[in-house]
Design a protein that fits this description.
homodimer, alpha/beta, about 35% helix
Chain lengths: ~375, ~375
């Protein structure tokens, strides 16, 4: 069995915090005590220095290039977890007499919907819960109410390994998308969205940073006074993400990640690689008598591949043995169990090949 | 003039993000691609793995030891900037018919007071604004209203270089303290406080983490539903700071910092060092015909020393020349100008000696 080990490193299939490209970690390591010939770590640099503001401007410029973000969209680098957006979105965009539409396709969109219901008016256009989140409800079946302030959905559900295989056609109703696990893994047409957000710890940087891309007309909706100035998109935009100290080191890694993606050939190239990685694994699963995958083919995530062993009693042994072979973090999310391989941009095809080889060997060695 | 340079490194007098102990950076550098023999960076480790939960538990235990935190106080490691606390505190602790007391002694307490006024009822017990924040109003002069839910204050004001040289005696009224710039730089009696918070980027770790220490009885005050579940102290406590993905790398550095403080001999030893560092600089300033410091002696910060040159036209030259000599980030806060030397735990006495030597030389070479 071929396992390509990078020095002492393992292939990390964790859903997030996830694997980072080794070249980025090596650069960060090299610069950790002396960044940019400053005699300081980037972590020790004041966020209002010309050095750091240049870094953040560079990061934003690179991201705008990678995703062709038009000028009438603002980019925010916010501290903290993406989950804060579950509240910030309705707090900023949903006025007292309005209601928002939520598509529930897995655990994350379910939690975002629960958060909005605590305080504002929202309804569920469709839910995949009856299929145990193994399929996306047909667009034709959605219960879309005429007066919807926005449609919120999660194009890729990290926990359930399912993606929405189309962009909902909602006319003038702005789309709000939680792209935490898929931003930068495939090309997107930004102009189809009103607001996109993504936690950094999958495809962007380390945990503690959330990117928000927001269209100018939505910025104007924030009610005054909003509860908590830190949660006001307008204030954060006016202050260029520096209303408070931003997570400096995360922004630094994000800038490196954007450069790395550019060097790989851009998002389209990574998308093709991601499809090849996912295809390799799903093809293996589809012909297997030993493993199974719950999601219907047309809605399978190319990023988070959920699967299980037909004899579930073997799964713990699988996880342990894989870890010994340098294939880490293959357990499913704690809420649903099973197995999961996350194949973010940083996962090389060699990692997936090694995983498939291991899976074949494990099936051979362990009768069901 | 003696300047002790650590390799290519400089003495960084920035107020935050601030200098970190070199030994911590060296350890982090060494482990950056392979932490704890995991074959992964700590940034790539799932936050719910046994490895990371053990790290966070160790960090909490160390902090509890360093500050003798009693069991009826909870410790939270929250993602994002400390400024979020300006809203979280009233959102969690202040009910509709209640009012809170705020002591305004500098820019940060002034901003916290402005935030509470946007949404809740609060009043100012006393303000140092008329002295341009160069003195703390006498406790006897405070306008304390009988019914105050809590007293909020900022024991050390980073921008203005001023400290409150006593703990306000408020009877049963809980004290809430923003200790962003002073936590772990001097011993404190936790039981005098109801809630303490601190952003990490001064004395704890890199930017993107906020510590909160909160007494159990205050946790019970959170109204339901609170706006934004992420801002609910109770929920964060029940989830052991893992309601969402915490800032993993910052927590890792914080754990190292707590161990480092322990190795130095604890908070009391660092306090004595900090006093010695501050005394060296203030003594020099007090006898100088060239430099001046605005704060009254009894309220001078031991952490952020604000000063200026009697001929302000020389300050830019001072900053530039100091930087060339490896003494970095001596400019005052952008809102008030002047000069400032921040002397957090990580600043060695040699750095302050080098600064004083440089200041003497600069005064000699530049007529007023």
């Amino acid at each position: 069995m071929k396992i390509f080990m990078m020095k002492n490193r393992v292939y990390n299939f964790g859903a997030g915090p996830a694997m980072l490209p080794e070249s980025i970690l090596l650069e960060a390591q090299d610069e950790l005590l002396d960044w940019n010939n400053s005699g300081m770590s980037v972590m020790e640099i004041g966020h209002r220095t010309s050095e750091f503001t240049a870094l953040l401007e560079h990061a934003e410029k690179s991201l705008r290039q990678l995703l062709s973000i038009p000028k009438h969209y603002q980019v925010l680098f916010l501290g903290g977890a993406a989950r804060t957006q579950f509240a910030m979105i309705p707090m900023n965009l949903l006025h007292p007499n309005e209601q928002a539409a939520y598509l529930v396709t897995g655990i994350w969109s379910q939690m975002a919907y629960a958060e909005v219901l605590r305080l504002k008016k929202a309804y569920c256009v469709a839910s995949g819960e009856s299929s145990n989140f193994s399929a996306i409800p047909d667009f034709e079946s959605w219960d879309i109410k005429k007066e919807s302030t926005y449609l919120y959905y999660t194009p890729n559900e990290t926990v359930n390994g399912i993606r929405v295989p189309f962009i909902p056609e909602m006319g003038e109703v702005p789309l709000i998308a939680d792209m935490t696990s898929c931003l930068l893994s495939e090309p997107i047409d930004i102009e189809r969205y009103g607001l996109i957000f993504a936690g950094a710890q999958k495809n962007i940087a380390n945990a503690g940073l959330t990117l928000v891309i927001i269209r100018d007309d939505l910025l104007a909706r924030t009610p005054k006074p909003i509860v908590a100035t830190m949660m006001d998109y307008q204030i954060q935009t006016e202050n260029h993400s520096m209303y408070a100290t931003p997570p400096v080191f995360n922004c630094y890694l994000a800038a490196k990640m954007f450069d790395w993606i550019q060097k790989q050939g851009g998002v389209q190239v990574l998308y093709e690689r991601n499809c090849a990685k996912a295809q390799l694994l799903y093809q293996f699963l589809d012909v297997s008598y030993f493993y199974t995958t719950p999601v219907v083919p047309e809605a399978r995530s190319i990023i988070n591949v959920c699967f299980s062993i037909k004899n579930k009693a073997l799964e713990q042994k699988f996880i342990t043995l894989a870890r010994e072979k340098g294939l880490a973090a293959l357990q499913g999310h704690r809420t649903i169990g099973g197995l999961r391989a996350s194949l973010y941009n940083a996962m090389p095809i060699a990692g997936v090949e090694a995983l498939v080889d291991f899976m074949a060997e494990f099936a051979q060695d362990n009768p069901l």
